[in-house]
Amino acid sequence: MRPTKADGSLATLQSDGTGAVWSIGNGIGFPTVSDNQVGWTTDKAIAMAQVGDLTYEIKGVVGKEFGSTIDFKFFGQAGWGIEFKGSAGSDYAISTTKGILNVGTGSNGHDDGNLFLSSDANLSMGDTVTVSLDLTMGVQAAALTTTVSKSSTKFEPTINGEKFMNTPYGYAWVGTLTQGQHLVFANADAFKEADWYMDPDFFEKDGDGYKFLPVTGYYAVLADFSLKYFKVFEVTDAYLPVSYDKTTGKGNIWVIGSTGIGKPSYAKNGHNWYTGYTNDIPLAKITDTKYRLTLNAGKEVDLTDNTINFKFFAQPDWGTEFNSDPSITLAGDYASYFTLNGGNVNFAKSNTDMTEAEKALVQSIKTLVFTLDVTNPAAAVLNIDVKLNTSAGISALRNGGNSRAPWYTIDGKRLAKEPSVRGLYIHEGKKFVVK
User: Fold this and answer.
1) Mean pLDDT to the nearest integer, 195-222
2) DSSP string, 72-87
3) Which residues contact 264 (CB under 8 A, 6 or more apart)?
4) What is the side-by-side order of every strand in the sheet holding 182-183?
5) How many C-beta atoms surround the C-beta of residue 149 within 10 A?
6) What's the CA gap between 215 and 291, in Å, rounded?
7) What was the pLDDT predicted at 279?
8) Residues 6+ apart with CB under 8 A from 277
9) Cβ-based burial of 312 (10 A; exposed 0-12, middle 13-18, buried ≥19)
10) At residue 181, what are phi and psi to the nearest 5 degrees?
């Protein structure tokens, strides 16, 4: 139900507190957050129910309407414009006493006005959460209260017998993980293997559990129950993400990008250049100097319009980015098909400039593997490996062929002889892959 005005347009909040209050952001969605998370897509904004004079409410169950990570805020319309902020002196100000949900101020580690779970929230799957906004003291003094009705179902997911806990960024397991370590995710109700996305950069199926692939370190394994996705990154003793150190090459490297990239899928978690732990993708550190990002076409990356657009950052937010400091260059057999536009990874040609053969190559991509080599921490090298889907109307290179017909590169340049370098070529009017 979306409240409307007499003319049929969506209701908005008035300066006296009447009208409507809308919720936009991550960790909330109806009928379920897993199927319809609002995110920062304003068309999905959810109106709070008016439960009294100048009092609004939204209620949901953790794991159903609410995710295990909360990062949404209140607006005066189903779109950008009036928004409630936590910083002092705001025209639409919101505050709360310390409890289940706290309010970001822009200086407390959370964006101004964004709601987030307190470290002692003690929420479990199945708990019913009621969030109330009281405007009786005016829109400049909105009061937020949160109440919880605990579920009677015991909820204690574990990794190798150790429990998850509430952290500043959500429900996570925190501890030392060793490269090659066997991990068992337990609690059948919480972790049903068929339902969860196990990031191939971090986990590999190993008997009754999974092998941990990155280097040994102190990690947080953030469990996003709304997306059924484990996000893994190195943390400090205070549970804060470790930023990339361009003098040592240690820490985390993050990806921020367009809506066509996301894990567990771009369809469920398209980024659109939003920042924060819940949006950005951490790379897996597979050796002391190499970080990896694997994207499968049609799942983690959308290549249908022959575009790609993302960038590497030293933190899950704006700040240090791989462009000039630290610098980044391209390498690999397919490097010529890509470019770095101010550090943004793009195809070298736009969709309108690509030849039909080049478009065919992009559409035949099965997997993109990006390996960021920081042997020189201040000057990263991005190696790009492309795995092609040879069943997509492209033939494999035949062995022992004796045709004298010429060979051409994908952009139409004639070759002196049959190619031996990996890539896509044209021969006898057909496309061939050299592996």
Assistant:
1) 95
2) EEEESSSSSS-B-B-S
3) 197, 199, 227, 228, 229, 299, 300
4) 182-183, 209-212, 203-206
5) 12
6) 10
7) 83
8) 69, 169, 170, 222, 231, 233, 241, 316
9) buried
10) -65, 140
State residue 168's pLDDT score. Answer: 65
CA 309 remoteness from chain centre: 14
According to DSSP, residue 362 is labeled: H
192 CB contacts (<8 Å, ≥6 apart)? none
Mean pLDDT across 74-98: 93
Residues pairing with 56 in the sheet = 50, 133
Give the pLDDT score at 68.
76
Q: Show the tokens assigned to 175.
A: 């501890």
Q: What is the mean pLDDT of residues 197-208?
A: 95
What's phi and psi for 361, nearest 5 deg?
A: -60, -50
Give the DSSP H or E segment for 34: helix 33-36
Q: How far is CA 269 from CA 222, 299, 384, in A?
A: 15, 11, 23
Q: Would you state the structure tokens that stand for residue 322, as one six-digit string?
A: 């791989």
Extract the tokens encoding 55: 């009092």
- Paired strand residues for 368: 295, 386
Question: Which residues on neighbouring strands pair with residue 411, listed in sequence order?
Answer: none
| DSSP state letter for 141 | G
- Rounded Cα–Cα distance for residues 11 and 6 (Å): 9
pLDDT at 214: 98
How open is the CA angle 61-269-360, to the nearest 5 degrees?
Answer: 150
Band of residue 69 on the pLDDT scale cut at 50, 70, 90:
confident
* Calpha distance 331→347 (Å, rounded): 14
Cα dihedral sign, 303-322-315-42: negative
- For 102, phi then psi, to 5°, come to -110, 170
Query: For the range 319-328, what are the long-range contacts, defined as Cβ-Cβ under 8 Å and sequence gap of 24 or more?
Result: 320/243, 320/244, 320/246, 322/253, 322/372, 322/380, 325/246, 325/378, 326/246, 326/374, 326/377, 326/378, 326/379, 326/380, 327/378, 327/379, 327/380, 328/372, 328/379, 328/380, 328/381, 328/382
Maximum separation of any 2 CA atoms in the chain, in Å: 86
